[in-house]
Structure formats: structure tokens, C-alpha cells
């Protein structure tokens, strides 16, 4: 049965044109039902007025977002990370990040077009750019920001909103301070917002096209592509997929209720929509990861997060090769932990400060001579020249090669962990001591984790996963991601445990040397080459783990409950008496919050009335408002509420996708006011028009007043101080001069130690310059001296927390100190790097120090 045609409605009431569609209901046996056909007025063709208004938005948007992109000419906020990642794509060195690769690859492509050679490292906030096309790289997100504004206009037009209302609503986004700020720097949020906006627009357009027509299929595919691009930029794209999925469920429900739609057609909708809207994003997501791995072929600092099998596929890796497979008594081995990235079983000539005060045993993530252990028979019997293989159930001892002490456990409290079921593990012994029963460990092969049938009986390097059971206590050699304090160099604690997650007691042998085994009998093995699927799976485990580990407090983090009310911003950059501070446009921000909450309250009241038997509103303006605004409030909810269940660090910019839907909701309210309330009389119409225009003016005024925080423009301390209605707006007014004239003076150099002010000699040659200098000396306050701080690392991640041992440790070479950039500053105008994933770098043949750092964000 064909759809019942919906009669187009376009009439004039008090000079106000209607852009909505009259809902048509069919008469059912039990109740009326909504006919879901597409009306003639919904098949939009954009007019010259539309193109003129879009052109204005583009021109003004380019002026606002592309202006002064060269300022600051130094690294801002998370450009440290994403600029640095673009550099690593160009160099081909592997890195680890919590976000999917697409947006970072796009920045790398732009940088390559600009001729970037990768010499500039993006190491610290405030580093001046050298030989870097940073303006071109910043133009990319700025253009994406303009695109978001245009897409908001087109989305509202597809939602039956009249052109000038679309223009005013898009102008609110155009002058929204946080969106402008986020789109001017090398960050992921602007491309993400563009892809989300494209998905919302294309799906909204889909609803205005006859089902299964060429244009319908085209819009559906474009929606799937946009969803895939969003998901491939940040995992926030999952919220957008959930949003589009929720709308599809709602539309399918309406189709099922429409008795004019055949059942076969409903099933066709289900399969076609599901295939395109899930299949296309998944294919794109996996494809971009495949490109990601093809580009990053060289060993890099991110390799410290990955397994040895993963790293073995990278050029220049130091993972052991040509390993002897057979393991037996007399083998010198390294033991690697399976379920954490703590690394190798390790000991060194340092002792526990409490407990037994015996030699420490830890996990250490780098190749080192202190990782080597000799397999001995448990009873101290001297084995002959015949090779004795290590088999399942065999009791052995492990002797630390460098210190000649044996792996030991006893009834002593664990060094850090406070659980009763964890006991201390140490290296114990002295010259001439043959060991005791507390040195005995029994090998138990984990059958379901070991693939080779032969490796399930005979322990083999790489291929056998096993546990070591302490013969005296029955506890298993165990390690979780608990770190030792400074006395343990931040390395990972090793204990023996009778409980805990079983996989935390899994080990395997990596290096293996045995002088007893005849050379002709050596079976040589290497790590197997990982498939694309295995690489993707491992990367995602690490991404999830890192993201979940971002739990330490960060000075600029905020609570999701604060976001709709704009109670807090983020300091991006502070230098040269200027500042970049992420702050939303309060006029637009609070209006979006009011629109969303008002609609939620209105919906609750309406549903309550319906429950009492009151009829559903069928007025075309009200009906269209209900249907369209429901879409946007659902979008706001699905891009906002999930953050409440996240335990990681969260920041104001995480709210920007939800804000986008809130602004679209404002547009629907404007359309309701004009199309429904203003149609009552000319007086009401004039009042509504004046209020809408006034609201836009207020938004523009706010943008202009706070624009120095967007563009790092000159500002006065007095203007700054009167601009802070809330304590949470904690940009530092002491950063700014007392009057604008001081920005035009010759450079003033302030010594942080003596506070002595000097100017170049040429500035002192004229009385006028001397007079200006005197004014500076009288009024200028010395900026606070920078205090270098070491950011705190997350407890959950092993590699960033590892600290190298002191050079005095036995047989340990002097380490190289890797300096972690520290531009952290406090709320008094100081800048703090956010969410950095600090990855240890290891030079050949040397131990490495990795100082504490701040780990990178997620969503």
C-alpha cells in the first residue's frame, strides 16, 4: 500500500509564513496513527536567500576564525600532543595515544603539504615554532569550524525552520567563544565537531526524502561516512552513532505504527539502515587504523606500551631475535609478565627499607642485564652436561645472574600492597649459600593459554605461558600495576599471592640461552608477525587502559555538572602579558541550557497530561517543534550524560558536542515563538522579533568583550577584573598590563630573580622612550617567576612511571635522563599541560630514566 500523501501547507497569518508541515493522522481500529509520508513542502530546494545568508556566515566565519592565527607563535595547550603526533607520522615513528588516528593523520597531511620536516618537536607549551607550517596547520581546524556553522544552518533548514531564524541561530554558534577558541589551534575537537555536524545534517535531510530513492540512499551513505569519520577522530563519535541509532529506532517505531506502510518495507528499512549506518563506520574505522599502522613503521617511544610481539614488527626495535626455544636447567632467561606492561622480572643491588630488608625484586620495562635469571634444580644437585628440559610441574630455583641471589618468598608483608593474601618476594642469599626451601618454585603451564601442544608439556621460550607456585606457601608469583615509591625507583611491585586475578600471575620466557644444549639441537624461534586484527585489538586494549587510568586530579579539570552553567574554563596559554583561555559565550551557553531544560520540563508536563487523557497537540507548529526538538534534546543527552559515568579526568571542551545540539534547540524555540506565538498579533510579533535580535546582539557583545582571551590580544588588568562574575572563571588578570599603551612600549625584560627591569639600549636614547620606561617601572608588576614542576603520573600505567636505578647499582650502566617538559603552572595564570602520554625512550645499551608525566585524555 502506498503512503497517503501529506497535504502541503503554506499560508500566511499576520504576515508570517509557515515553514512547517501539517501532521496527517489515519483512522485505526483502536486509535489514530501518524502517517509518515514525506510532504511536498519537506522536499526543499534552497533559495537565493539561503545562499546569500550562507555566504554571509562563511565570510564572517572565516574572518573570525582565521584572523591572527599566527598569534601566539608558540605551542598552545594540547598542540604539544597533536602537533607532536603529526610530526611522528611524518617521521614514521610509532606512538601511543588514547584517540583514534584520523584527525591526527589529517594534521600530518596538512603539515606535509606545508613542507614540515619534523625537526620541531612540539615539546613544551610556549616553545616558539621553527621551520613549522603551524599557521597552515591551524587553518585546517579553523575551516572545519566555519563548516560547522554552515552545517548548523542547513540542519535547521531541513528541520523546517525559516531562513532568517536559521541565520540567527547559526550566528550564535558563529560568535560562540569556546568554539572559536577550539577551532584556532591544532586540536582534535574542531574536526570532530565538523564530522558530528555533517552526520546530523545528512540524517536530518534523509527524513525529508522519499525512502529508497537515489537521494535517500545517498544521504544514508553520507551519514554513515560522517559517523565513521567522527568515530575515527575520537571515541566521542560512539555517542553520535548512539544518537543516530536512537533516531532510527524512533522512526522505525513510527513506521511500525503507520498502517499504510507494508511489513516488507519496514524490514527493508531495518536491514538497509543497519547495514549502512553500522557497516560503513566500522569499515572506515578499521581502514584508518590500517593506514595508521602502515605509516608508523619505526620503533618509537610509544613502543614501551606495547607487547614484544607488536614491537618486533617495528623497524629498529631491540626485541630479542633468533631465540632458542628449548628451556631447561642451566638456561639463562628473562621472564616477562603477561597481563601488565610492567615488563621483566628484575632485581638490583638495592634493598627493601622494611620487612625482610632483603634485595628488591620488581618489574622493569626495559631490556637490562639485571633481568637475567639462571634456572637451577630445586635440590641444589649439580646437573651434568646432559640437557634437562623444563617440564610442567618441575620444581626449580631462579638465581639472579648479577647478584647471585635467588628468587625468594616468605611470610612477610608485601612492600606496598596491604592485602593479607600478598607476601613479599625478594632476592636472597650470599656467597657460598646454596639456598633454602623458600627459594623453591614449581612450574605450572597454563594449558588454555598455550597453543602449541608440545609447549603444553615442555616449557618453550615465547610459546609457553606458565605460573610459578611457591613450594612452601602455595602462593603464586604475582604482579599488578602497583608501583613502588622512590626507594624502588617507581618500578612495579612483585609479590606472591594466594588470591587476585589469575592472569596477573601469568609469565613467559623471552630471552633464553643454554650452553649445555648442543648447537645443532637448537630450535630457533622469533615472535610471530601480528596480523592487522591483532594489532588493532592490542592497540585498543592499551587505549582503553590508558584512558581509564587518567584519574589523577588535574588543575583545569571540571565536573560535568558544571558544564551547562559555564562555571569553569581552561587555561590554554599564558605568555608575554597575554593569555588564551577556553571560555564559552555565556549568553549562548546559558540559552542552550535553558532551551534543553525547558523542553524536558515541557515534555514531562505534556506526557503527564496525555496520561490523564488529554489529547496530543496536533497544531502543525507545535507538532513540528515537538518532533524536531526531541531529536536535538536526545542528541544533547547522549553527548552529555555518558560523561557522568566516567571516572577519568574531564574538561570543559568535552561538552562542546552537546552544546551544538543545545544551540540547535534554541533555533527550534525561535521558530516556535515566530511561527506560533508571533502569529497571534503584530504586537507580539514585534516583541518576539526584538527579543530574538536582542539576544543575538548580547551574544556578539559577549564575544567582543572576551575576545582577548580567544586571540591572545592586548587587554588591561582592570578590564579583566571586571569581566569575572564567577570565581571559576580563573584566568589571571595579573598577566595583563595596566593600560593598553604599555603593549606598544619597547620590550621589557623582567628578571625573575632580581626583578630588575631593563630595555634595549636604543630605547634609552630618547627622552620619550625614557619617559615611557619610567611609566613602565612605576606601573608594571613583575610577572610571577615560572616554577618548574614535575607532573604526577597515573598509577595505572607502568611505562611512564618507571624510574631508572641509580648508576651505582651493580652492573647497571649510567642511565640517560629524559627530560619531561614541564610548563605546568597554577591557577594564577600559569599554564599546565593536559593529559600527556609520556612514553619512555630507550637508547641502545643503556638503562633509561623516565620522570613522571601527565597522561593524555580521551574522549
Write the layout of secondary structure elements.
Elements: E1 12-13, E2 16-17, E3 25-26, E4 33-34, H1 48-66, H2 79-91, H3 102-113, H4 134-158, H5 163-174, H6 177-182, H7 189-206, H8 214-231, H9 237-257, H10 263-295, H11 308-311, E5 323-324, E6 332-337, E7 344-351, E8 359-364, E9 372-377, E10 395-400, E11 406-413, E12 422-428, E13 441-445, E14 466-470, E15 476-478, E16 492-493, E17 495-497, E18 507-513, E19 524-525, H12 532-548, E20 570-575, E21 578-582, H13 586-611, H14 620-638, H15 656-677, H16 682-705, H17 708-711, H18 717-721, E22 749-750, E23 757-758, H19 767-779, H20 798-801, E24 816-818, E25 848-850
Helix pairs in contact: 1-4, 1-5, 2-3, 3-4, 4-5, 4-7, 5-15, 5-16, 7-8, 8-9, 8-10, 9-10, 9-14, 13-14, 13-15, 14-15, 15-16
Work out the helix count. Answer: 20
In angstroms, what is the radius of gyration?
33 Å
- Silhouette: elongated
Query: Would you report the number of β strands?
Result: 25
In the predicted model, the low-confidence regions spanning at least 5 consecutive residues are 1-18, 748-859
Portion of residues in helices? 25-40%
Instruction: Estimate the strand proportion.
Output: 5-15%
Distance between the termini: 46 Å
**Strand-pairing-aware structural class:** alpha+beta
Total separate domains: 2
Largest sheet: 7 strands, antiparallel
Mean pLDDT over the residues = 84
Amino acid at each position: 500500500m502506498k503512503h497517503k500523501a501529506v497535504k502541503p501547507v503554506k499560508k500566511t497569518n499576520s504576515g508570517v509564513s509557515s515553514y512547517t508541515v501539517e501532521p496527517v493522522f489515519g483512522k485505526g481500529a483502536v486509535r489514530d496513527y501518524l502517517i509518515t509520508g514525506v510532504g511536498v513542502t519537506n522536499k526543499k530546494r534552497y533559495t537565493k536567500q539561503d545562499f546569500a545568508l550562507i555566504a554571509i556566515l562563511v565570510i564572517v566565519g572565516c574572518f573570525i576564525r582565521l584572523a591572527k592565527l599566527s598569534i601566539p607563535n608558540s605551542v598552545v595547550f594540547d598542540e604539544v600532543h597533536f602537533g607532536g603526533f603529526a610530526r611522528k607520522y611524518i617521521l614514521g615513528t610509532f606512538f601511543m595515544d588514547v584517540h583514534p588516528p584520523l584527525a591526527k593523520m589529517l594534521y600530518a597531511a596538512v603539515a606535509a603539504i606545508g613542507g614540515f620536516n619534523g625537526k620541531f618537536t612540539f615539546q613544551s607549551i610556549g616553545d616558539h615554532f621553527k621551520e613549522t607550517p603551524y599557521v597552515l596547520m591551524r587553518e585546517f581546524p579553523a575551516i572545519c569550524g566555519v563548516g560547522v556553522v554552515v552545517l548548523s544552518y542547513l540542519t535547521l533548514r531541513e528541520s523546517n525552520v525559516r531562513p532568517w531564524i536559521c541565520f540567527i541561530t547559526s550566528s550564535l554558534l558563529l560568535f560562540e567563544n569556546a568554539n572559536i577558541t577550539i577551532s584556532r589551534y591544532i586540536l582534535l575537537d574542531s574536526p570532530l565537531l565538523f564530522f558530528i555536524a555533517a552526520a546530523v545534517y545528512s540524517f536530518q535531510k534523509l527524513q525529508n526524502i522519499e525512502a529508497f530513492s537515489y537521494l535517500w540512499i545517498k544521504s544514508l551513505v553520507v551519514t554513515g561516512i560522517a559517523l565513521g569519520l567522527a568515530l575515527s577522530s575520537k571515541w566521542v563519535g560512539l555517542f553520535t552513532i548512539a544518537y543516530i541509532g536512537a533516531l532510527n529506532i524512533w522512526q522505525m517505531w513510527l513506521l511500525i505504527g503507520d498502517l499504510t506502510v507494508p511489513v516488507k518495507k519496514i524490514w527493508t528499512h531495518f536491514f538497509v539502515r543497519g547495514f549502512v549506518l553500522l557497516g560503513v563506520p566500522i569499515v572506515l574505522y578499521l581502514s584508518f587504523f590500517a593506514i595508521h599502522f602502515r605509516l608508523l613503521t619505526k620503533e618509537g617511544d610509544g613502543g614501551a606500551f606495547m607487547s614484544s610481539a607488536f614491537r618486533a614488527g617495528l623497524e629498529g626495535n631491540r626485541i630479542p631475535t633468533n631465540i632458542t626455544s628449548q628451556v631447561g636447567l642451566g638456561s639463562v632467561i628473562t621472564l616477562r609478565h603477561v597481563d601488565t606492561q610492567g615488563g621483566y622480572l628484575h632485581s638490583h643491588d638495592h634493598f627493601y627499607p622494611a620487612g625482610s630488608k632483603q634485595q628488591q625484586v620488581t618489574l622493569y620495562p626495559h631490556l637490562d642485564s639485571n633481568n637475567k635469571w639462571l634456572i637451577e634444580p630445586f635440590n641444589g644437585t649439580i646437573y651434568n652436561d646432559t640437557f634437562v628440559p623444563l617440564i610442567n610441574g618441575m620444581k626449580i630455583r631462579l638465581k639472579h645472574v648479577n647478584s647471585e641471589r635467588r628468587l625468594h618468598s616468605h611470610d612477610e608483608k608485601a612492600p606496598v600492597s596491604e592485602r593479607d593474601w600478598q607476601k613479599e618476594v625478594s632476592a636472597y642469599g650470599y656467597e657460598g649459600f646454596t639456598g633454602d626451601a623458600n627459594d623453591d618454585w614449581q612450574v605450572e603451564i597454563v594449558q588454555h593459554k598455550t597453543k602449541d601442544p608440545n609447549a603444553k608439556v615442555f616449557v618453550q621460550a615465547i610459546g609457553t605461558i606458565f605460573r610459578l607456585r611457591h613450594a612452601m606457601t602455595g602462593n603464586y608469583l604475582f604482579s599488578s600495576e602497583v608501583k613502588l615509591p622512590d626507594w624502588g625507583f617507581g618500578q612495579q611491585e612483585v609479590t606472591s599471592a594466594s588470591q587476585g586475578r589469575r592472569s596477573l600471575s601469568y609469565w613467559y620466557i623471552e630471552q633464553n640461552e643454554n650452553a649445555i644444549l648442543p648447537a645443532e639441537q637448537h630450535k630457533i624461534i622469533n615472535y610471530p608477525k601480528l596480523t592487522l586484527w591483532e594489532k588493532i585489538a592490542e592497540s585498543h586494549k592499551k587505549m582503553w587502559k590508558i584512558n581509564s587510568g587518567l584519574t589523577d586530579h588535574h588543575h583545569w579539570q571540571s565536573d560535568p555538572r558544571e558544564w551547562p552553567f559555564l562555571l569553569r574554563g581552561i587555561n590554554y596559554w599564558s605568555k608575554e602579558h597575554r593569555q588564551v583561555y577556553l571560555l564559552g559565550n555565556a549568553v549562548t551557553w546559558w540559552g542552550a541550557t535553558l532551551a534543553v531544560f525547558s523542553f524536558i520540563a515541557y515534555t514531562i508536563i505534556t506526557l503527564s497530561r496525555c496520561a490523564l487523557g488529554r489529547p496530543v497537540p496536533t497544531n502543525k507548529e507545535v507538532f513540528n517543534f515537538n518532533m524536531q526538538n526531541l531529536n536535538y534534546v536526545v542528541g544533547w543527552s547522549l553527548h552529555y550524560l555518558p560523561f557522568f559515568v566516567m571516572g577519568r579526568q574531564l574538561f570543559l571542551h568535552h561538552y562542546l558536542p552537546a552544546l551544538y545540539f543545545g544551540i540547535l534547540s534554541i533555533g527550534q524555540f525561535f521558530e516556535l515563538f515566530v511561527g506560533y506565538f508571533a502569529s497571534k498579533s503584530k504586537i507580539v510579533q514585534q516583541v518576539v522579533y526584538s527579543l530574538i535580535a536582542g539576544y543575538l546582539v548580547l551574544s556578539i557583545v559577549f564575544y567582543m568583550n572576551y575576545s582577548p582571551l580567544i586571540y591572545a590580544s592586548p587587554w588591561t588588568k582592570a578590564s579583566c577584573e571586571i569581566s569575572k562574575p564567577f570565581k571559576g572563571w580563573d584566568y589571571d588578570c595579573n598577566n595583563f598590563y595596566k593600560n593598553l599603551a604599555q603593549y606598544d612600549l619597547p620590550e621589557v625584560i623582567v628578571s625573575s630573580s632580581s626583578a630588575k627591569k631593563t630595555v634595549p639600549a636604543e630605547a634609552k636614547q630618547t627622552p620619550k622612550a625614557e619617559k615611557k620606561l619610567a611609566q613602565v617601572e612605576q606601573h608594571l608588576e613583575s610577572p610571577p617567576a615560572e616554577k618548574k614542576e614535575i607532573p604526577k603520573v597515573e598509577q595505572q600505567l607502568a611505562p611512564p612511571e618507571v624510574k631508572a636505578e641509580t648508576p651505582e647499582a651493580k652492573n647497571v650502566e649510567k642511565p640517560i635522563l629524559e627530560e619531561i617538559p614541564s610548563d605546568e603552572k597554577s591557577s594564577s595564570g600559569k599554564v599546565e599541560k593536559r593529559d600527556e602520554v609520556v612514553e619512555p625512550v630507550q637508547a641502545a645499551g643503556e638503562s633509561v630514566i623516565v620522570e613522571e608525566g601527565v597522561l593524555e585524555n580521551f574522549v
